[in-house]
Amino acid sequence: MNIKYIKANLGFGLLRLCALIVGVIIFAILYDIASKGVGKITWEFLFSMPKNGMTEGGIFPAIIGTIFVTAITALLAIPLGMGCAIYLNEYANDNIITRLIRMSIRNLSGVPSIVYGLFGVVLFVQAMRLGTSVISSGFTLGLMTLPWTVTASEEALKNVPNSYRQGALALGATKWQAIRTNVLPYAVGGMLTGTILGLARAAGETAPILFTGVAFYLPFLPKSLSSQFMALPYHLYIMSTQHHSINQVRPIAYGTALVLVVLVFVMNLFAVILRYRLRKFKRD
Amino acid sequence: MRFKEKVIHSFFFLNGVLVVIILLGIFALLVFTSIPAFKEIRLSQFFFSGIWNPDAYVKPAYGIVSMLVSTFLITFGSLVIAIPLGIGTAAYLSDLASPRVREIAKPIVEILAGIPSVVIGFLGIVVVGPVIAKIFGLHNGLNALNGSVLLAIMALPTIISLSEDALKSVPKSFEQASLALGATHWQTLIKVKIPAAFSGIIAACMLGMGRAVGETMTVLMATGCAPAMPQSFLDSVRTFSSTIAIELGEVPYNTTHYYALFAVGLVLFIITFMINMASDIILHQYRKVTK
Q1: Are residues A31 and A74 in the same domain?
Q2: Has residue A242 got a pLDDT over 70?
Q3: Which of A31, A76, A82, B72 is the most exposed place for a label (fewest CB within 10 A)?
Q4: What was the pLDDT predicted at B290?
Q5: CB within 8 Å: A122 and B29
Q6: CA-nearest residue of chain A to B155?
Q7: pLDDT tens digit string along A61-109?
Q8: What separation in angstroms does the CA of B119 have from each of A29, A233, B125, B131, B154?
Q9: Of B5, B88, B245, which has the smallest distance from its Cβ to A19's Cβ?
């Protein structure tokens, strides 16, 4: 056997080892959370209020709070993201403004989440006088999600064949009519898929909501857009670092972590299934 | 009809421009909210002092050097772990793995990307921390090393998927030419494909780095957050992001301390902005070359 083949085998072995380590890390993370969190998951844990200074009881308000704030995030990010994508893919010429828009999107997606939090404090909490509230948090998360929704929506629009647009235009449709009847119906599913993936990330974020509306402990559900709220990621954060008896509430922290991971996972799964079904639909 | 089309066009145009306004708005708000801080803090103190002690009764100190060192210490640590692992895995997926393994691996890596940072931080406290404490005989394992390990895990999905894309976009003819000349698959990978994909891989690593520099929750939870100059990887560190996260909740609005935290945010924004721009430029150049 030649020395260069020994080298090749060693090298490829090393690559296999790298992949194996990454696989083991992912498996270990999921296994640890699932195995230690699953014992905590009961109807009572999911659907009751925290009790006794959060040493007992459930996480119902945190679940509702997360769903509530994610809904507001969607309300802001979906229309703005889709609109921006429609402009970029359907209307924009290749000029300096378009390039500026694309550059801004790429940079926005790299802005640290804590900086979005600072922005939210100044703009929504103080300047717009929305206070520390579920709407301030939702808007802050919405801005953070925007670059992801734009990118995903544009990808979906790109997948619509150009002949669809040209066909409509050739029959005398205006630009907007062509987009509305011949482009959007085929792109909207893909747009939604990407958007849901973005929202799943937003649902798990903590830093942007830290100062814009999330509460340590509220024994009731958020009543309106201007109330404070509890959220799963923040609840996990305080349960693992700020609580007065950290070791006693560790099972609750594991339970919360599992619920959060499952929530994000289910949203991802939903998006993947949607994408799969749309692909099938397109082929038919 | 014409008029309506024009209105719709302008509507989408404004929607597009909004993104630029948001980016400029973030920058402008950070700048304007930072400025009042420098009425009381000397710029030289802010940028060159390692002491951050805004609560001191007599003489509050606002120096960001220890945060800068902390941030780059754990970022460096995370890259040392994540880059070889990430590129190795990407090379495995693009060159060795069977199509079936690749089909399974992609969603699995996406799952890792989807795990919220607060969950990774939690695991840093309950799993990684105790392990580090045991190995090095420390009282607790909340230190820079812990932060580096966690940030590496979080940077892996970015580095893996972008490096894999870069390796895949190397033209097939390069590979075939190399093999035809008698090189092994390994030599082809190391001497032809990786150099050809190099700028794409570098851009991937820089994006991973940008993430690590700005990451808040994992660092906040797993590094101990002592506001001092770190001496080694086993020291507790406090980054830009965790300083903001810890202190902004406690300061009253519109005080020097409050403004100073926005100045810290501005520094963080500028650093990540430069890293992202650099990776963008590298990626752009690289696309031109491969085209």
Answers
A1: no
A2: yes
A3: A31
A4: 58
A5: yes
A6: A22
A7: 999 999 999 999 999 999 999 999 999 999 998 889 999 999 999 999 9
A8: 9, 8, 10, 17, 11
A9: B88
A104 lies in the same domain as A181: yes
Q: Are B19 and A150 an interchain contact pair (Cβ–Cβ within 8 Å)?
A: yes
Q: Are A137 and A212 a contacting pair, CB within 8 Å?
A: yes
Q: How many domains does chain A have?
A: 2
Q: Where are the domains of chain B?
A: 52-290
Asked whether residue A13 falls in the same domain as residue A64, the answer is: no
Q: The tokens 């690749």 sit on which residue?
A: B102
Cα-based angle B64, B206, B107 (whole degrees, multiple of 5): 120
Nearest chain B residue to A258 by CA: give it. B119
Q: Considering only CB atoms, which chain B residues are within 8 Å of A237?
A: 118, 121-122, 217, 220-221
Which of the two residues, A135 and B111, has the higher pLDDT score?
Answer: A135
Q: B31, B92, B119: best mutation site toward chain A, by most A Cβ within 10 Å?
A: B119
Q: Give Cβ neighbours of residue A215 (< 8 Å, ≥ 6 apart).
A: A228, A229, A230
- Per-residue model confidence as pLDDT tens digits over B44-56: 888 988 888 888 7
For chains A and B, what is the number of CB pairs under 8 angstroms? 255
CA of residue A37 relative to chain centroid, distance = 22
Tell me how crowded residue A63 is: count the other CB atoms within 10 A of its CB: 21
Q: Above 0.95 for ipTM, yes or no?
A: no
Angle at alpha carbon of residue B44, lines to B40 and B50, rounded to 5°? 100
Residue A116 and residue A26 share a domain: no
B115 and A261: CB-CB below 8 Å?
Answer: yes
List, for residues B214-248, the tens digit of each pLDDT value: 999 999 999 988 888 888 888 889 999 999 999 99
On whether both A92 and A202 belong to a single domain, the answer is: yes
Closest chain B residue by Cα to residue A96: B17
> For domain B52-290, which CATH number applies: 3.10.105.10, 1.10.3720.10, 1.10.287.130, 3.30.750.24?
1.10.3720.10
CA distance B215 to chain A (A): 6
Å between B249 CA and nearest CA of chain A: 6
Q: Give the model's pLDDT for residue A284.
A: 47
